[in-house]
């Protein structure tokens, strides 16, 4: 039986697995290098296979490899990423694999992306139809969807962007370049920047030998490589990478303390295999627990959220520009945020279903929120049971999702249809299912992400908001309708917007200025 404390932590903690992926997969906006120059440069691009060790706080948490091979008239690029994230003392494994077919000027022809975890599989296959249409096949746990995405020209994927950058033109120190990529892990195009900081020489193990006296692989020869040191920025998040002359990563760091370092295969693979076989984090390295690592201590006990009438906090050490901190029950003045408890709405101005002409985006289906799926619709109809009052319908959905889903940390791209089948997950899974059910029932709904207070800390968390003549937060993970005043919203939107929380992690200072009890 899962303890109440553990259930609260699982419910209150959002594990942003893609923070790690994004530290590895560099994202930027596409600036079109001259095709002739790319063709000439790529002609000298030799087949290669690089291996990487992924660490958090100096402890191994994963393995990665990147391979480029030549084909007649083009190239194949393959990335393999394997992670074992420690969460609440146990490991949450996941792997991501990308295969990309490129033409001779490095233009995208097709790709396949697959994420595997204990929760299930998520796959995206894409192919260019000319230069203006990207056709996608999305498979989330056996639920397949076809989607066509119009483009303004050739499409760039995150893994290919650094190669384009280095081979397309000579990078210049101090210059900030702009790029756009389509990221299959969040199913959206991203606009970001890359600043060239300079040239640096890095050294990494090239070959190894096994030392029986210590039972480890140790470097035998070292390789020296001249790199471009670059700072990448997207949505206010900054990552740093060191790229070799072919545009391949030698080293990368993220704000969360993750590092990705090129090394010999034996070292990277053996570190990962030992972690995989042990099933636990290395002794004494509690800092690798993603939930505790990202939690924010306030240094004092606060009353339980349902006893809070209001909460005033000071947000420091971060740039608050671009966050959704203002509105409805939240009021921001400078760096001081006041959050008021949300009263249960007594009644609203509309009956179900809401007018789709007024709420197109908030009632719409997406690849991961399948509002028109027969199983989603049947479930929404059964739970609501003919109720036409949005308040009572939203409350019934909150209770049903809370009671029906097991509380479990997962590393997945949550799909509502898949969550409905699996009946488990953390706040991401609870939220995506709730939003799909609410929209299917005609209740405008969206995803909110930020912080929630659980016992003595604030944890990163996701929850839905529903329109009840104002945006009202509800929390099907913690079973709260409305959600209590300890829910501090920073962003609204899907996975692509959730990534913006990286700007806060490890930097945000939160001071509780006052607490008002009921």
Task: Describe the model.
21% of the residues lie in helices and 42% in strands. With 518 residues, it is of the alpha+beta class. The protein has two domains: 4-288, no CATH class; 296-517, C8orf32 fold, CATH 3.10.620. A 14-stranded antiparallel sheet has the order 8-7-6-5-4-3-2-1-14-13-12-11-10-9, with helices on both faces. Strands 15, 21, 22, 23 and 24 form a five-stranded antiparallel sheet that branches. α8 packs across α11, α9 (390-404) packs antiparallel against α11 and α10 packs across α11. It is globular, with a radius of gyration of 24 Å. The chain starts with a helix and ends with a strand. 46% of the residues are buried. The model is unreliable at 4-41 (pLDDT under 50).
Q: Biggest β-sheet: count, sense, barrel? A: 14 strands, antiparallel
- Biggest sheet strand order reads 8-7-6-5-4-3-2-1-14-13-12-11-10-9
pLDDT averaged over residues? 82
Radius of gyration equals 24 Å
Structural class: alpha+beta
User: What coarse outline follows from CA principal-axis ratios?
Assistant: globular
Unreliable runs: 4-41
**Termini separation (Å)?**
32 Å
Could you tell me the number of beta strands? 25
What percent strand? 35-45%
**Helix count from the secondary structure assignment:** 12
Helix content: 10-25%
Number of domains: 2
């Amino acid at each position: 039986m899962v303890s109440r404390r553990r259930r609260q932590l699982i419910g209150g903690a959002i594990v942003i697995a893609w923070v790690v992926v994004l530290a590895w997969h560099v994202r930027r906006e596409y600036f079109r290098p001259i095709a002739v120059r790319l063709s000439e440069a790529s002609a000298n691009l030799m087949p290669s296979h690089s291996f990487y060790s992924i660490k958090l706080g100096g402890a191994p948490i994963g393995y990665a490899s990147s391979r480029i091979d030549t084909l007649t008239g083009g190239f194949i690029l393959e990335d393999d990423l394997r992670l074992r994230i420690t969460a609440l003392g146990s490991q949450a494994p996941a792997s991501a694999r990308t295969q990309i077919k490129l033409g001779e000027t490095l233009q995208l022809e097709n790709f396949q992306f697959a994420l595997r975890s204990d929760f299930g599989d998520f796959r995206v296959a894409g192919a260019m139809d000319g230069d203006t249409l990207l056709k996608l096949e999305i498979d989330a746990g056996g639920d397949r969807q076809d989607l066509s995405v119009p483009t303004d020209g050739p499409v760039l994927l995150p893994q290919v962007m650094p190669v384009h950058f280095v081979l397309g033109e000579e990078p210049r120190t101090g210059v900030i370049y702009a790029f756009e990529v389509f990221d299959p892990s969040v199913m959206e195009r991203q606009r970001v920047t890359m600043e060239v900081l300079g040239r640096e020489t890095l050294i990494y193990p090239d070959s190894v030998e096994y030392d029986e006296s210590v039972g480890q692989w140790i470097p035998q020869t070292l390789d020296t490589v001249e790199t471009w040191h670059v700072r990448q920025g997207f949505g206010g998040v900054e990552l740093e990478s060191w790229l070799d002359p072919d545009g391949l990563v030698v080293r990368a760091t993220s704000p969360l303390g993750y590092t990705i370092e090129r090394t010999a295969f034996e070292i990277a693979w053996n570190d990962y295999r030992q972690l995989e076989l042990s099933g636990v984090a290395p002794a004494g390295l509690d800092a690798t627990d993603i939930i505790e690592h990202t939690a924010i201590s306030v240094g004092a006990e606060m009353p339980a959220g349902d006893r809070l009438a209001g909460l005033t906090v000071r947000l420091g050490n971060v740039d608050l520009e671009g966050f959704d901190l203002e509105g409805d029950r939240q009021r921001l003045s400078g760096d001081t945020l006041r959050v008021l408890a949300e009263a249960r709405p007594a009644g609203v101005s509309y009956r179900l279903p809401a007018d789709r002409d007024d709420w197109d985006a908030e009632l719409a289906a997406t690849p991961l929120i399948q509002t028109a799926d027969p199983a989603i619709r049947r479930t929404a109809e059964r739970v609501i049971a003919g109720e036409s009052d949005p308040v009572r319908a939203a409350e019934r959905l909150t209770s049903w999702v809370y009671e029906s889903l097991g509380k479990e940390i997962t590393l997945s791209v949550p799909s509502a249809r898949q969550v409905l089948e699996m009946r488990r997950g953390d706040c991401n899974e609870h939220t995506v299912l709730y939003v799909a059910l609410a929209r299917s029932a005609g209740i405008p709904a969206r995803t909110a992400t930020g912080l929630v207070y659980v016992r003595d800390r604030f944890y990163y968390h996701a929850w839905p908001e529903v329109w009840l003549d104002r945006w009202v937060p509800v929390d099907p993970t913690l079973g709260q309708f409305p959600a209590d005043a300890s829910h501090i919203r920073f962003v609204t939107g899907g996975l692509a917007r959730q990534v913006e929380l990286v700007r806060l992690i490890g930097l945000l200072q939160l001071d509780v200025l006052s607490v008002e009890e009921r």
